[in-house]
Amino acid sequence: MAEPGNKRRPRQKRWLVLGAIVVLALIFLIPFIQEGGARVDTSVEVETQAAVLGEIEQTVSGYGLVEEAAATPVTVSYGGTLRTVSVQEGDLVQEGDVLAAYDEASLREQISDRMDRIDEIDAALAETDGDVSFSVTAPADGMIREIYAVRGDRIDDVMEVSGGLILLSADGLLRVELQVPVEDSLEPGDAVTVTAGDRQATATVDALEMEDGQETLTALLLLEDDGTFSLGETVELRDGAGELLGSGTTACNSPVLVTAQSGLVSQVEVSLGDWVSEGDLLLSCTEISCDGLDLLEERAGLVDELEELHALLEQPNLTAPADGRVTGLTVSEGAAVEAGTEICTLTSTDDFTVSVQIPASSLPQVRVGQQAECIFDGVTYSGTVTHTSGRTQELGGLTVCTVTLRLTAAEGLAVGDEGEGSIILGREEEALLIPIEAVQVERLDTYLVRVSYGDGLTQQVEVEIGLQDGEMVQILDGLHEGDEVVVASRVVETTVFSFFNFEWIINQEEGQSEEGVLSETEDVTVVEDGTAPETEDGPAAD
């Protein structure tokens, strides 16, 4: 009897034979597949988005510190001893609050010192030799309309401020100019009523003037200057029927200024409204030396100081000139201070300055007065640009410059706080917008966009851009609302293997292209007429 294992050997041989046949068949068929049994189809897929109208805001941002707050220094006008100091470092005060108080005895001492100095000046002036008296007389007949000088004035000071010592009205009339329509029936010689409040007078139309091409007349009206109206007063004018003609300002009709060269006014000899004749005495004056003039000037200053010191003696308190927090307090109770000493600073609690560092490339777009916002601990504060600096520095590989922002109504901030400041470079509510990825730059100030016309057809067009916010960009020219622009594209290759009636299909993405704004443009086929170039198989997409 044969062994059981010997029966399986013929079956193993059959499998070996079949395997060899399959291998030989594949070796025989591979050349046919390689020679013409495969093809590659290429297509371009694009992603588009429509141009739409919307709001856009462009900003430039940077981080900065609250370096200093708006501050008001508090100084003493007069020296003396401080009897009390009512505040401490860090106190919050309001305008008018008492900060400190003078010792009255020290104020009386300063008053005494100034009175002694005035007595010395008076004695020196009395002993001055060579003083010569002279008179200022009326240069023409007229009415005293204004008196600019008073006793004790230096003539040159009055002349510098007012242009003269006394104003005469040669004819005693006031003049009012009024613009009226050409069709008004006013004529020279007509009477009109002039009013100011409950005061009124009658004026006469002196002349009507008109320049070529104007639709209004300048009516010149004269009224007697009896003191009813003052110079420079606005008055209303009405015609005989009571109809309002308009308003005008009173002026001297025939002004004559009384002048002199130098000296001191000893006495004013006339009063407002007086009528004088040519040669009448108006002012008695004294010529004094330069040293005497200097003494007089010093004396006038001392008199002013005496008035202020007496007022301070009645109310010896130093009060806060503004709201704020007391900082830099330098005095304490009993301290002796000199005039002009700064005793503290009032730092505002809601008005701050923030220095923000922004990219230097954005500086040309930043202007003083632009709106700004700063975020500190999640809270947004409004402000404005107050200063820009052209000085640059390198920070983390970036060239930056400093812009100063002023924040108002910023209660809760403190010096040293750090936050982000944003400057609003521009804002448009009805802007034509497309994604920033759709814009390519070809060269400086030349921007391109690919417009899709469907069925894989695209055309590249040049556009003018405006504001950008990091996601969208404003198109000023080159596109219309609704235009479909290409934001991304990719090339897909499909490989097909054919064998008898069977096909094997393999898809492979050759690559993907997504261009962004301000990135270099790749070489593309531009079809001027909006159609794709022809291939052997027909139109192909650009």
Q: Record the strand order, biggest sheet.
A: 2-22-25-24-23-26
What's the N-to-C terminus distance?
A: 82 Å
Q: Categorize the overall geometry.
A: elongated
- Mean of residue pLDDT? 80
Which percent bin holds the helix content? 10-25%
Number of strands: 34
Report strand %. over 45%
Number of helices: 4
As a whole number of angstroms, the C-alpha radius of gyration is 47 Å
Biggest pleated sheet: 6 strands, antiparallel, barrel
Report the uncertain regions.
1-7, 511-542
Q: What would you note in describing this structure?
A:
This protein is α+β, with helices and mostly antiparallel strands. Helices cover 15% and strands 51% of the residues. It has four helices and 34 strands. The chain has helices spanning 9-36, 104-126, 155-162, 290-314, and strands spanning 38-50, 52-75, 80-85, 92-93, 98-102, 132-137, 142-147, 166-169, 173-181, 191-196, 199-209, 216-224, 234-238, 244-252, 255-258, 264-268, 275-276, 281-287, 317-319, 324-327, 336-337, 342-359, 371-376, 379-395, 398-408, 418-435, 439-443, 446-454, 457-468, 472-477, 484-499, 502-513, 534-535, 538-539. Strands 2-22-25-24-23-26 form a six-stranded antiparallel β-barrel. A hairpin with a 3-residue loop joins strand 29 (457-468) and strand 30 (472-477). The protein starts with 8 loop residues before the first helix and ends with a strand.
